[in-house]
Amino acid sequence: MVKRRMIHRRIEPASQKITKPGKFVKDPVYKLIELTGTSTTSIEDAVDKAIKRAHKTIKNLCWFQVVETRGNIEKGKVHHWQVTIKVGFAVQAAA
């Protein structure tokens, strides 16, 4: 019997968010939203478009997770990609 060791890594790129120069949030709080990006080019382009659009109105974007990938077909070829992602961002600390 082969024993397998599972390694769990927790990705928290914003765990050291700066609120003021030289000050870090000790225990940051995050919020998740779900977005769907679209592209006629690629899956990556659909993800990139969703993140770029969210970045215009949401501060402290930290990570994303692909939830679903789908698309439509025309004349036997991929015509359009739709990629649903969850995007995490740090909630600002109360003043």
Structure description:
14% of the residues lie in helices and 47% in strands. The protein has one helix at residues 43-55, and strands spanning 18-20, 23-24, 29-39, 61-74, 77-91. The strands form two sheets. Strands 3-5-4 form a three-stranded antiparallel β-sheet. A two-stranded antiparallel sheet has the order 1-2. By secondary structure, the protein is mainly beta. It has a domain at 34-91: Dodecin subunit-like (2-Layer Sandwich). It is elongated.
What are the SSEs and their pairings?
Layout: E1 18-20, E2 23-24, E3 29-39, H1 43-55, E4 61-74, E5 77-91
Antiparallel strand pairs: 1-2, 3-5, 4-5
Describe, in short, the structure shown.
With 95 residues, this protein is mainly beta.
| N-to-C order of helices and strands | EEEHEE
Largest sheet: 3 strands, antiparallel
Helix content: 10-25%
Number of helices: 1
Question: Which second-level CATH architecture of the domain at 34-91 applies?
Answer: 2-Layer Sandwich
Strand order of the largest sheet: 3-5-4
CATH topology category name of the domain at 34-91: Dodecin subunit-like
| Radius of gyration, in angstroms, nearest whole number | 18 Å
**Quaternary class:** single chain
The CATH homology group name of the domain at 34-91: Flavin-binding protein dodecin
The low-confidence runs, each spanning 5 or more residues with pLDDT under 50, are: 6-12, 14-19
What overall form do the CA principal axes indicate?
A: elongated
Number of strands: 5
Strand content: over 45%
Give the CATH level 1 class of the domain at 34-91.
Alpha Beta
The class by helix and strand makeup works out as mainly beta
End-to-end distance = 56 Å
Q: Which whole number gives the mean pLDDT?
A: 82
